[in-house]
Amino acid sequence: MEPLVKIENGGCTKCYTCVRTCPVKAILINKSDGYPEVNPGRCIGCGACIMTCSEKTIFFRSSLEDAKALLSSGEKVLALLSPSISVEFDDVTDYRKFATMLRALGITYACELSFGVDIIAYKYQLLFHDFKGRYYITSTDPVIVSYVEKYHPNLIGNLAPLVSPMIAGARIARSHYGPDVKVMYIGPDIAKKDEALLYDDDRRIDVAITFTELRSLFRHFGIDEANLEFSDFDPPLSYKGALYPLTNGIIQAADMDENLVTSNVISIEGIKAMMGALQEFENNIKFIHRHVHITSGNSLAGPGFSKQSGRLYSEYLVIKFANKRLQRFFRVEWYQQLQKYLELDYSRTFRNDDQRLPEPPEEKITEILTLLEKTGSEAVACSECGYANCRDFAIDIGRGLAIPEMCISYALKNSMSNMESIRQLNEKLAQTRKQLKETEENARMQKEASVQMSELTDATLEKLRAGVIFVDNKLKIIKANATFSSILGEEAEEINAVIPGLVNADLSKLIPPNFVNLFSFVLNDNENIENRDISVGENLLNVSIFPIVSGKIAGGIVRDMRAPEVQRAEVINRITDVIDRNLEMVQKIGFLLGEGATDIERMLNSIIEFYKDEKKNR
Question: Is the pTM higher than 0.70?
């Protein structure tokens, strides 16, 4: 079965108002995402969370589809209508019109719950009159019953062993109209939806819907009182049971003594008043000597209403409705019906569903209070967290039922601390962004400079008359200039036209093995090869190879010895080298041979000057 109350996280803002409001702390914080969620086992169905959620993200279990299915089933359906209808449908001009509207839905019998109230009220009168030393707590409200079963199980024996008016109404309906009739309860209490699931005999409620759901049915079927005639409710008709929504309505219905001096019943309404009254009943019943009638207050302002009216106005509407009913009241007929149905069995039992949790160790409570900074004079009872005092709050934090952020002052201090942390983080972020921007600017400038340098290098390489090549350790060409391709011949030039720079070409397929071996040597031994003359086909090449990145990249400079400029330059270089290496010897020979050596040196120098002059003139 779907839980009675559910929180939809889609619109939840994590304000935790519902957590603070829940009187039994049945709403917990999910540790994984921080969203509140309802623990169905602890929930008592009061609906306080629904009514306080500003974002309207908390919903009760819908019975609309079940109601539509029942109405279209072809079965005889009997509606048990709560007298709170006068508060919800104050826009309906006459209650007799309302009975017709119900029949237009497909309802076979439109009955008032008020007669069930009359029956149970007199059952309470008999129970209280036949006093045998036990004081009772009325069990007419399922919220009160659930609270006792879960949080005061030691008071279960004091719950009056009587069903609620709704269940009594179902038993009376089947006694009057037959056991096969289907019963639909209509009222403002969402807790009735779970109470309806407790029975599967002639007390059963087939569908329980709220007033908001009833309005949805009217809209769905297009029902408007303006198009309908008067009709009355079906019997059995009630007397003062129409006053049931009021705090002491059931006491009035039974004509019990309400004299403050002589009465033995105290009437209490509201969730907070309920909690305090039950605690006091448990602690001091031997001094109080009173039965206690407690209601949650949902009959006048429950979550099943589509609108919330003021207290005084709501009570006025209930009393006005009751007076209208009494104008057509026949006491003798009612009394005969009362006596007839008082003979039915309206007894019930209760179950111990203890949801109380053990109190944490004292040191844990102290630790939590210290965390909250609620020690000594700081431990005030502001009740903003939903608890009577800081200690109770700390106890439920220790139980896992609350979180420190529910404390306004703690949350505010944390918020201020977080704001300061955020401010500091923002400052660091701004500084980081500035540094990042500077780094990006530097990187951009370096990239631009790198591109410019690369372009400049490429242009320079292409202008050189010597061939230049770079090779990786797999003997794949990284880059080669056009001169290198022209030195190798037409095949290399054709490849260069398709793949500029011969990028990724296999060096071994372009030059002979003896040339390739030179590159392998440099890459493996990390040594230079300078001015090595090698033959490639009919060509004589002068090669210098050197390591650039040890074991990974080698560079080479290749000159074609056939080129005139290379020949002249090489003659000059080599003659100069010969002169440099033999100068000392020549000087010694000149010393021995005198002028002859001087003439030889003069002749050699003239040859050098000749070639230099010719180069300038070209």
Answer: no
